[in-house]
Design brief:
The complex is a heterodimer of chains A (587) and B (404). Chain A is mainly α and 587 residues long. Helix content of chain A is 68%, strand content 0%. Classes of the chains: A mainly alpha (587), B alpha+beta (404).
Amino acid sequence: MQDGKLLFECLREGIGKQPTAAVRDALGLTEPAEDREIARALTEWLAKESLAQLAGEQGGAGAEERGSFVPQPVEFNDTSFLGRLKPRSQKRGDTAVDEVNDVTTLLAVLRAGSLAQRRAAARRIAEVFESVGGEERRAIEQVLEQLRDVEIAPELLECRLKISGIPGREAQLTLREVRQLSADIAPKITAYWDGELLVEPLMALSGDQRAQLLVHARHLDDLVIAHVAALIEGATGSPDRRVQRAMLSAVRYAGDPRLLPALVSLLEVGDGELGMEASRAISRIEDPRTWKALLAAYERSVVDRERISLGGALGRVGDVRAADYVREQLRSQDEHVLIRAIEAMRTLGSADDSDAVAAFVASKDAVIATKAAHTLARIGDARALPELTRLAREAPAGAVRASIEEAIEHIRARLVLRGEEPPSESLLVVLDEQQRAEGTALLRAPFGVRLRAYRHFLAGRLWQLFGATQRALVRFDLAASCRPGWAVPLVAAGMLQAGREEYAQALGLFRRAIDAERERVERNPLIMRVLARCFLRRSEQVERDGRVAIARGLLDEVMSLDLRHAPSSLRFEIGRRHEALRVLGAG
Amino acid sequence: MRPLSELENAVRSRLASQGASGVRRVACHVGGEEVLLFVRGGELRAVCTCSRDQCEHYQRALFWLCGAEDGLEAGDDPRLRTSQRPSTPVPVDHTALADAVDGLLLSVVRAGVTGASSPSVRDAIDQVVVRAPTPLPLGLSRFLGRLNDALSRQDVGKTARVLEGARRFADALREERPSSENQARRFAWLGTGAFGARALEPMEDAMLLEVGRERVAGLQRNAIERRYFVHLKKLEVVREEHLRTDAEASVGPCPRLLHVAFGELEQFGVPRRARLLQYAVAAELTDAHWTLVEPVVQSSVRELRRRYVAAVQQCPAQSEPFVIFAPAELQEEPRAALVDAQGEHLGLPEEAEQPLADVLRHLAKEATLVWVAGRLMSLSRGLVLRPVSALLKRGDGLHFVRIT
């Protein structure tokens, strides 16, 4: 009779560990059977037996199967309110955003929390908005009007849809635009796969249209998402890295779980550059598969830039195992490694890293300085405030100063959540500077000159209304000549040119407007939308002509402006193209 | 104008005379359609995407191929794509490969599944790779992937089944005149290196609906990408398989509907491997398309188990049944499982693959789970479904969701 347990042990431990004669007998083999014969008979018997057990609804033969090793996330040991604040309550006693009713706290979390906390806060605000009092509503509206957080753009859109006034109307317009774009593109996608359309329809869109569409991916049809996934995976017959890169950049803030399988497939293929971009998009998707996919890729990675990006992505989902490694990389002499490390510290850095990161805010390289300020904002430690306040006073107006001011606001919000008091004196200095710079230009010119300038400007507006563009432009130019410090006619002329897609001409006018009244231009969302788009389009044009250095220069220029009032999709696309051209420039 | 038969003869003789390293198929774009021309059994055969026999596109393609421009119409801009016959493979020494496979079997049995990292096992795997055709065929690569997985899990039953498949393969390799089953077995393991063209079944005018994609281990991690389709005429699941470095995969998003004008199906392994040679892609699917899948959907765990056992008995190392299962409910405690109407459980992945089960749980909370498609695996705790995709029902209709 065959001895099942003996044979099972035989394959588990190896035939050498069992008495050969007994095994041979159990298998019904005769005396001179060699190991080879025993091995073949043994596997045949065990395979049959395991299937018989399965058919008989019992477990397989390997009842002692070893479980695979399951790693656990390495989390921050932060005992503060923010550290303990969970996005959703999972058990009794959890401190969770979805149970917070205090609007001030929710708004502070919306500004200063982690990505998951900010998302949850935005969702919570949308839930409680109808039930809160007038003053709290106004506070919510004020914050929503100012907040330009592209990472939680879909959640902010839901919030803005609930409020009245300009933000609400803008949100409705955005949603309508997204739905319209999606409806327009769906038949083109069908035609593309049908072979009737040779040009891929998403690549036919401009970068910012693509970004706007995909930032709100959760509102898109399954067909569009499946198409984007196919482009990311390269399932087009001839995968084009340019298309894959463009799609990956566009879906960075999409946060749509439907895209996850395609993104994970890129991580698994092990293509460094595409993998880095994929990791950024994956880490912003709330899904049980996210952490495991990132962890596997991180553990496989060996190239510094990739490993840093993957480490940062892991940090975004709450696993800070890469923190020590990334801290080391802050000493790197390689500009690209350094930038990645500063970026990764946003999700991996703790209060102790403030000083190390703050040192980079004073960098002469505006990109490094801006990224360092953003990182300090996310770390949110008060120790960085004195240095940031000094730099905010000393830095010329523009992108760096804007990011420093933003960082100060973030840190302040975080301090509120920690129950601390922000040092108000230093902030007053910054506010004082801002107020002094604002709106004094109108008083410079004498009354007669101002009147003449207004007359020319109004005449220009009238000509514009009648469609006489050239006459309007002449009048605007005259108005600007009368009062050189007045940006309004220059802006009007610039917008007129931009509307006619004459970006090169519009650029010159916008530059003059910035020289005249920088702050006034930078603080107007309508102007900044057109201005930023104008720079972006012109940069695309010159890049198409092969003048990459000029294209990069244009983006450098627009990125030196305070883009906080430009739409998120535009800022994102400008940043993406700038980064792409920067890498290209470095070879 | 030259008569059609003359043109057909000219094209046939040109295709037939190309020899082993020449052109074996010609695809011609004429008037917005693609005409595929090839020689089979000495006859010129053609398939056009317009689905009609001897259509005007076919005739215009013949004219153009024979250099008779007068047969083309104004606006025609023919484009040609040729499919080269693969270069003659280096002959594989079947006996040496069979010995190497037997050697691997012996090494594993000597070391035991707890000694998986034994140098002798690693060396035996190297010997198999050295004696196998280059590049490593998908069937052989997947066998090594499954063996490594079974050893790392220290799963005696799975190791035994995979090795039993290898034993039968080694025996098939040693046969001088293999039976048709063994010929198909060789083909499933070695692909074209097995010289087994007879093991292929032609697939013409078929409709395939893609229901999932996944990457599985071969000799390397995630080396093989699989796409699973429901063959809507044969009502069976088939798979397309390729190395992740290979650009030969069919194009299109998942899910999609393929109208396959010309393809091939292997005859061994579950699900059967398909080669898609000429097809049209439809990316937009409606709820009506999903109703076509219904005949393939299983709702009994007992039946799934029976089919699984039958498939693995037939070809233990090359069967990885892929099923579409409509559960009566999703059980969460104590272990995540799909439950059928009779109360029988179909396990879901745990430990490292726990996120897949978590996603399914999450989906089941937000919508009605119509079915779950996935690969069946036998683990020590019984039959487990590794979910690859799911069909959900929400207020606005049916939604397909990829999980892997």
